[in-house]
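Supplementary Methods. Inverse-folding protocol.

Structures were first reduced to a discrete structure-token string of length 79. This string, shown here, constituted the complete conditioning input.
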């Protein structure tokens, strides 16, 4: 499954929960402040994202949205 995440840098407080939980190391912490003075998370390696949504589940600020690519069903899997 292919996934994609979008991080709202203004909501993010840089807690690093998303970084810690991402087993594919898609997320890093930026070295620049957001407007609130926090170092926000950033999706660096989006091609690696599987769409597992663990980062969004861990985010206390609800700053991460996860999108998954929906693949068409194979002919033998259709009802």
């Amino acid at each position: 499954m292919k996934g994609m995440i979008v991080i709202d840098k203004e909501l993010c407080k840089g807690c690093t929960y998303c970084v810690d939980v991402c087993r594919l190391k898609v997320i890093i912490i930026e070295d620049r402040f957001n407007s609130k003075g926090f170092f926000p998370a950033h999706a660096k390696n989006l091609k690696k994202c599987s769409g597992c949504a663990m980062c969004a589940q861990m985010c206390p600020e609800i700053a991460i949205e996860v999108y998954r690519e929906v693949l068409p069903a194979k002919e033998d899997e259709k009802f």
